[in-house]
């Protein structure tokens, strides 16, 4: 059973460009969250998708948008890239068991903006 | 904004020693989780402790939670060189269950 799969693993973009990152959740997980982790920092919550809708959003500008497909896979889009968008982008899928929610993280996409 | 604050920021120990890492947070939580991250890659879930639990064990890991002090500690016993990584605590307030992470602790275990 595959865990959370993210693609690509590394990406280099130029300031002002747009980027799309992809995430396939673990089988059976229906909720996907995206996090941004700058170098030397902890992950910061971007947004969460459930039933193809954005359910919660962190403190990120509208340049960050997302989508969830019927098969629960998700995309993170970032427009008008800034140098400060360089970070590791992590996707996490959420499941519910008898005692509450658990999370499985992917290995991340390392985005470098030059 | 970051809810959890880990302490110390960096820890260096000899293989075989125990490593204790602390986390403090600010608001009421549903649960607190600890994650490990190797070399800036993906996060690996280590252990979850719920707000009504005080202590939990998993293999060489022991986590405690004191909700009155809004703090948690992670103990790794008999450390190994492979435990070298960054460790993060993350809180889940239960409101749509997003995780709020601290800045992390860098643990180095010397062989």
Largest interface: A-B, 31 and 27 residues
Strand fraction of chain B: over 45%
Helical segment count of chain A: 0
Give the number of DSSP strands of chain B. Answer: 11
What distance separates the N and C termini of chain A? Answer: 37 Å
Structural class call of chain B reads mainly beta
Oligomer: heterodimer
Helix content of chain B: under 10%
User: What is the general shape of chain B?
Assistant: globular
Order of helices and strands of chain A: EEEEEEEEEEE
Mean pLDDT of chain A: 92
Tell me, rounded to a whole number, the average pLDDT of chain B. Answer: 91
Characterize the overall form of chain A: globular
Largest sheet of chain B: 6 strands, mixed
Total number of strands of chain A: 11
Runs of chain A in which pLDDT lies below 50 for 5 or more consecutive residues are none
Outline the structure in words.
The complex is a heterodimer of chains A (114) and B (111). By secondary structure, chain A is an all-beta fold. Chain A has strands at 5-7, 10-13, 19-24, 31-37, 44-50, 53-57, 64-68, 74-78, 87-97, 100-105, 109-113. Chain A is globular. By secondary structure, chain B is mostly beta strands. Helices cover 0% and strands 56% of the residues of chain B. Chain B has strands at residues 5-7, 10-14, 19-24, 31-37, 43-50, 55-58, 61-66, 71-76, 85-92, 99-101, 105-110. In chain B, strands 2, 4, 5, 9, 10 and 11 form a six-stranded mixed sheet that branches. A five-stranded antiparallel sheet of chain B has the order 1-3-8-7-6, with no helix packed on it. In chain B, a hairpin with a 5-residue loop joins strand 4 and strand 5. Chain B is globular, with a radius of gyration of 13 Å. Chains A and B meet through strand 4, strand 5, strand 9 and strand 10 of A and strand 4, strand 5, strand 9 and strand 10 of B.
């Amino acid at each position: 059973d595959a865990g959370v799969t993210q693609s690509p693993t590394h990406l280099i973009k130029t300031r002002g460009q747009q980027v799309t990152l992809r995430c396939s959740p673990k089988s059976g997980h229906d909720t996907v969250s995206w996090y941004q982790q700058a170098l030397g920092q902890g992950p910061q919550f971007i947004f969460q998708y459930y039933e193809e809708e954005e359910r919660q959003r962190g403190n990120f500008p509208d340049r960050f948008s997302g989508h969830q497909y019927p098969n629960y896979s998700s995309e993170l889009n970032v427009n008008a890239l800034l140098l400060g968008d360089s970070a590791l982008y992590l996707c996490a899928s959420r499941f519910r068991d008898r005692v509450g929610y658990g999370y499985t993280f992917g290995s991340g996409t390392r985005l470098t903006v030059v | 904004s970051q809810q959890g604050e880990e302490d110390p920021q960096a820890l260096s120990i000899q293989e075989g020693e125990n490593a204790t890492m602390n986390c403090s947070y600010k608001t009421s939580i549903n649960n607190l989780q600890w994650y490990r991250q190797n070399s800036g890659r993906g996060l690996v879930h280590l252990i979850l402790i719920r707000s009504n639990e005080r202590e939990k064990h998993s293999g060489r890991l022991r986590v405690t939670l004191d909700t009155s002090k809004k703090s948690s500690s992670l103990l790794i016993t008999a450390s190994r060189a492979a435990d070298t990584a960054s460790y993060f605590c993350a809180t889940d307030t239960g409101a749509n269950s997003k995780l709020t992470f601290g800045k992390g602790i860098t643990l180095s275990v010397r062989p």
